[in-house]
Amino acid sequence: MARRNGSSTLSENVTKILWADIMAGKYEPGSLLTVSELAKSFTVSVAVVREALTRLASQGLVLQNPNHGFSVKNVSEVELNNIIEARLINESKALRLSIAHGDLTWEADVIAAYHKLSQTIEYEDENEKLTIRKEWLEIHRQFHYQLIAACPNTILLDICRRLWDLSEFYRNYSVPQQSARNGLAEHKALSDAVHSRDTNRAVELFREHIQLTADIIFDNR
């Protein structure tokens, strides 16, 4: 049992690292993820890596092909439009419910999440390639999750979080085209609207925020 728990913990750690690497753009969409090479890189067993990749496949970030192993999901304009549409429907509702039910502690947490985001550097230049820092990725996710954290519908929250992860994959893919975007100003406006309980304004800003992401990704395709 101890060995199994240890293996599970290793798999969870590898899953988190691979998730962050994929989100940060370390692996190109459609690129192969060779189990043996990853096992060597992480100094873990092939079974641990395979379990981690299977978890990522269940989240929709990795594809599993019986004949070709695992690969990073490809980008698709049709899928992105479906994700955006689903987010507009589900997350707009979750945001409205969160603002309606959120207490002062939730308000303070939203402000704190934005402050932390505003103090974190987003991009780094790695080998002359603009990439998103892993630390910023996690803090950015925490900010968006906090906005809807007071929504009492836990099933709706689970749907929103899964959609957000898929959307984030596409957003990070747009890094080379979006360096001039003032994302911090967008987040500040959204945080202020939520703090002032201006529900309609908050939802409007949220919708503009994710639609701009979609427009940037496919602007130069």
From TrEMBL:
InterPro entries per the UniProt record, alphabetical: GntR_C (IPR011711), TF_FadR/GntR_C (IPR008920), Tscrpt_reg_HTH_GntR (IPR000524), WH-like_DNA-bd_sf (IPR036388), WH_DNA-bd_sf (IPR036390)
Pfam families from the UniProt entry: FCD (PF07729), GntR (PF00392)
Source organism superkingdom: Bacteria
Record-annotated HTH gntR-type domain positions: 8-75
Keywords: DNA-binding, Transcription, Transcription regulation
Keyword DNA-binding included in the entry's annotation: yes
GO molecular function: DNA binding; DNA-binding transcription factor activity
Protein name per its UniProtKB record: GntR family transcriptional regulator
